[in-house]
Write a structure and sequence with these properties.
Blueprint lengths: L1 H15 L2 H7 L1 H22 L8 H20 L2 H9 L1 H14 L3 H28 L23 H13 L5 E6 L5 E3 L8
Antiparallel strand pairs: 1-2
């Protein structure tokens, strides 16, 4: 069992590290990664009989929200809507996997901070190139209203920069009281992203 646990942990770590880039350029593979991590997390919890994360307040609220979404889909939509609502749980499981299984390891957190920082720098470099040269890395000019695209094909660089830069910029400035890392130290950095 211990060998299977180590194997699963390596697989999910390898899957999660490219997530910032996948969320920027390849949403379908990002969805596949989130689903795979959620399934492996449930398998991990079953193997280790570790379901303590279910007692956290945010998990209870997320479960109630998910139940409400499934119920609303059953009342207002058809079978397809209910299936989509049922599959929505993968997002909550992915976040729980990050919180309690993947990111408690300080090395993995450091790699993720650097990955998010690299994607943020890539976005800024693409915007500057387009601002100075008139074209981005992909050969696209500014959007019709003059918006900078960064290294993208549509004006999404601003929201992508906010989503990628914040986890990389604030790892040591935001403490999460009450959340303890293994070994007794408290976690820092938006509940998982900083250095312990």
């Amino acid at each position: 069992m211990r060998q299977a646990e180590l194997w699963m942990r390596r697989v999910v770590t390898g899957l999660v590290v490219p997530m910032p880039l996948l969320l920027l350029y390849a949403l379908a593979p990002a969805e596949i990664v989130m689903t795979a991590v959620a399934v492996l997390f449930v398998a991990h919890c079953m193997l280790c009989r570790d379901w303590g994360w279910l007692r956290q307040a945010w998990v209870v609220v997320a479960g109630m929200l998910w139940g409400e979404i499934v119920l609303s889909s059953a009342v207002m939509g058809g079978a397809h809507a209910v299936m989509q609502a049922l599959c929505l749980v993968r997002y909550f499981l992915f976040v729980a996997a990050l919180q309690v299984w993947i990111l408690p390891d300080s090395r993995t957190r450091g790699v993720m901070v650097r990955a998010y920082g690299a994607v943020a720098l890539w976005l800024v470099a693409g915007c500057w190139q387009q601002y100075l040269c008139g074209r981005n890395f992909l050969g696209y000019g500014r959007w019709a209203d003059g918006a900078l695209l960064g290294p993208l094909w549509a004006p999404r660089a601003g929201q992508a920069l906010v989503m990628t830069a914040l986890p990389a910029l604030f790892p040591s400035h935001t403490a999460c009281p009450g959340v303890k890392a293994r070994g007794g130290g408290s976690w820092r950095g938006a509940c998982c992203w900083g250095w312990s």
